[in-house]
Design goal:
The protein has about 300 residues and is an alpha+beta fold. The protein is built from 9 helices and 9 strands. It starts with a helix and ends in a 5-residue tail after the last helix.
């Protein structure tokens, strides 16, 4: 404790020692200096994305936090059940309230304390819900690789998981609905405006995708069009309707959309391909095959 007090005192002393030079900086630069060297302790809500053992005594834990965005932590493995940082807190998609030292220049942050924000009542005990949660965690681990603070996105993820935990039934389409609406936060939610081919022989259809005639869906451009794109990353008219269907779904009403096992698996394949086109180096998801065995 004395060593920590000495370090903090030393940092504050140096901050004020260089105060004249600091005053000449821009407000943002001043904020960054103060944040990096003095204001280190942060209390925030967090969602666990992934954890793995590092050496014999530590876990590396990836979290998405409400205040700081994506953070990585080096967490000491508790030697007894009485430790404050319990190993079970770091299971995928656990909702926590954490206290941590955050330094932007450090790749691994220091976690000082953690407690359950919300304890799941059904997810750990339902094979179907657990498979959905593990898939969601793996998906977010890659989709939020460098995500900064986004409170609306954090709230969306947190509320979605709490909805899944509380749902007694009717959640077979949860992962489809979650992925579709997640794209809105990441900047590539489908555009409902219909793009027309300017060529003179192209049929002219005014309005939106609800009109008569076939429409394609361009996965690269995230938009509907009345002619097939020149590349291969698009959906034929018979499958473009899946995107329209997903855009109408939400958690309370998604049970009304009856999908076969084959249709559900095809849709999730398309959605993963869609994310792979828009997020660089988005990999194959290992948990997808397990998820696709559900509701056969």
């Amino acid at each position: 404790m004395k060593n920590e007090e000495f370090v903090y005192t030393h940092l504050i002393f140096n901050y004020f020692l260089h105060l004249p030079a600091i005053f000449s900086l821009t407000p943002r630069a001043k904020h960054e200096i103060f944040r990096n060297f003095v204001l280190m302790l942060v209390k925030t809500e967090a969602i666990v994305l992934h954890s793995f053992k590092y050496g014999e005594s530590r876990l590396i834990v990836e979290m998405f936090t409400r205040q700081e965005g994506r953070l990585s932590f080096a967490v000491p493995i508790p030697k007894t059940a009485k430790g404050r940082l319990k190993k079970q807190y770091f299971q995928p998609m656990t909702l926590l309230e954490v206290e941590c030292d955050v330094r932007q220049r450090n790749q691994l942050q220091k976690l000082k304390d953690a407690r359950l924000l919300t304890a799941y009542a059904s997810i750990p005990f339902s094979p179907e819900k657990l498979a959905i949660a593990l898939f969601t965690a793996e998906f977010l681990y890659h989709a939020l690789r460098s995500e900064q603070q986004d409170e609306l996105l954090f709230t969306y993820i947190s509320n979605s998981m709490q909805w899944l935990d509380a749902a007694p039934a009717g959640y077979a389409n949860f992962h489809l609905t979650f992925l579709m609406h997640m794209s809105r936060f990441l900047g590539f939610y489908p555009n409902l405006d219909l793009t027309h081919d300017p060529s003179p022989n192209s049929p002219k259809r005014e309005g939106s995708i609800g009109g008569e005639g076939d429409v394609f869906f361009d996965l690269r451009e995230a938009r509907f069009c009345n002619t097939a794109p020149l590349h291969r990353d698009f959906l034929q008219p018979e499958e473009a309707g899946m995107i329209q269907l997903l855009m109408r779904m939400d958690f309370p009403t998604m049970h009304l959309f009856r999908l076969s096992h084959q249709e559900r698996n095809r849709i999730v394949d398309v959605l993963v391909q869609y994310y792979r086109l828009h997020i660089p180096q988005f990999p194959e998801l290992r948990s997808l095959s397990v998820l696709q065995e559900l509701w056969a």
